[in-house]
Amino acid sequence: EVVGVVAVDVVVLNRPLASEFPVGMRVEIATTGESGEVTGTSRGRVGVRMDASGEVIGVVAADVVVLNRPLASEFPVGMRVEIATTGESGEVTGTSRGRVGVRMDASGEVVGVVAADVVVLNRPLASEFPVGMRVEIATTGE
C-alpha cells in the first residue's frame, strides 16, 4: 500500500553502510575518542584502521563519528538555510575555511557563518528517501 507520511515519522531501514562510511573517510570512535580511517564495511560494522596502533578493528556503525565531512557536500550553492543564532534566512553562496557563505535575504549581504550555526531549510525529501528505499513508519498519526 502506498501512503503519504510526514518525513519525521519515517525511519530508514538497511541503508548501506558503504555509502555512509566510504573507504578512506576519517572517523572517530565515540566510545573511546580514538580516530582512524575507514577500511571497509561488513556485517553491520565499520572497519577502522586506528591511528595510534595501526590495528584494524570492526566497530558498530552507531559508535562511528565522521570527521571533517566536506562542507561543500553538506551546503551546496543555492541551498536555502537559516542562521540558528539570529533566525535570519538566506542562500548558500559557497564554503571556505570551515565557514558557509550565506547571502542574507533581508540585507543582500554575504556573511561567513560557522557551519554549526547553519540550519538547512526545505531539504529535498527525494534526496533523503530515494524510490525503493526500505522504511518503517514510526507513528501512525493517531
Summarize the structure in words:
It is a single chain. The chain has 142 residues and is mainly beta. The protein has helices spanning 17-20, 71-74, 125-128; strands at 10-12, 26-29, 35-42, 45-50, 56-60, 64-66, 80-83, 89-96, 99-104, 110-114, 118-120, 135-137. The chain is flat, with a radius of gyration of 19 Å. The two termini are 18 Å apart. The mean pLDDT is 81.
Brief synopsis:
With 142 residues, the protein is mostly beta strands. It has helices at residues 17-20, 71-74, 125-128, and strands spanning 10-12, 26-29, 35-42, 45-50, 56-60, 64-66, 80-83, 89-96, 99-104, 110-114, 118-120, 135-137.
Q: How are the elements arranged and paired?
A:
Layout: E1 10-12, H1 17-20, E2 26-29, E3 35-42, E4 45-50, E5 56-60, E6 64-66, H2 71-74, E7 80-83, E8 89-96, E9 99-104, E10 110-114, E11 118-120, H3 125-128, E12 135-137
Antiparallel strand pairs: 1-12, 2-3, 2-6, 3-4, 4-5, 7-8, 7-11, 8-9, 9-10
Which class of secondary structure composition applies to the elements?
mainly beta
Q: Which range best describes the helical content: under 10%, 10-25%, 25-40%, 40-55%, 55-70% or over 70%?
A: under 10%
Query: What Rg, in angstroms, do the CA atoms define?
Result: 19 Å
Tally the helices.
3
The total count of strands amounts to 12
Shape: flat
Main sheet: which strands, in order across? 5-4-3-2-6
Strand content: 35-45%
Name the features.
142 residues, mainly beta, five-stranded antiparallel β-sheet, 12 strands, 8% helix
